[in-house]
Write a structure and sequence with these properties.
Number of strands: 0
Radius of gyration: 33 Å
Structural class: mainly alpha
Number of helices: 5
Shape: elongated
Distance between the termini: 93 Å
Helix content: over 70%
Largest sheet: none
Length: about 170
């Protein structure tokens, strides 16, 4: 039994086209990240962490691609093919996809806000009632000097509050 250790030219061409098609779902994942950034603006650190996570997903996808389709052999043209597929997706379908995803996430956010508004108003009402009933405790306990006139020895028989010397052993 002879084990083939190289890919023929048609096999390499097929792997290149498969790598190009691998770039399309990666482009879709990147568009989801872009839409989330538009809807929920956040700082540079969060963007950097998201980009790093995306690159790790891309690298993992390339490793899985090589393991499943290419007998575990990693070639540079897999990365180039997936980059080409990513760029083709971004230049063609990606421009429409971002708008569609933005609308879908925007509508779902409004629906979620509409569903949680009664819950939020209920929490605000409960907070108002609790503040009305127990708010004076916060005002009293906030003033530390209110308790200064109470000697600890009277309350709990604590000896370190005693002005006399402690008993020697």
């Amino acid at each position: 039994m002879e084990l083939e250790t190289f890919f023929t030219v048609p096999e390499q061409t097929r792997l290149l086209f498969c790598a190009v098609f691998l770039g399309i779902p990666l482009g879709l994942c990147f568009d989801v990240l872009r839409v989330l950034r538009m809807l929920l603006p956040h700082g540079k650190l969060a963007v950097a962490l998201e980009d790093t996570a995306f690159l790790l997903v891309w690298g993992g996808a390339l490793l899985c691609f090589a393991g499943i389709f290419a007998r575990g052999e990693m070639r540079a043209y897999y990365a180039l093919g997936s980059t080409l597929g990513f760029l083709l997706y971004r230049c063609t379908i990606g421009t429409v996809t971002v708008r569609v995803l933005h609308r879908i996430f925007g509508v779902s956010g409004r629906v979620l806000r509409w569903l949680t508004t009664p819950l939020f108003h209920g929490v605000v009402r409960i907070y108002g009632v609790l503040k009305e009933k127990f708010g004076h405790f916060a005002k009293v306990s906030g003033k530390v000097h209110f308790f200064w006139h109470l000697p600890l020895i009277v309350i709990r028989k604590v000896l370190y509050n005693n002005k006399r010397k402690t008993v020697k052993r």
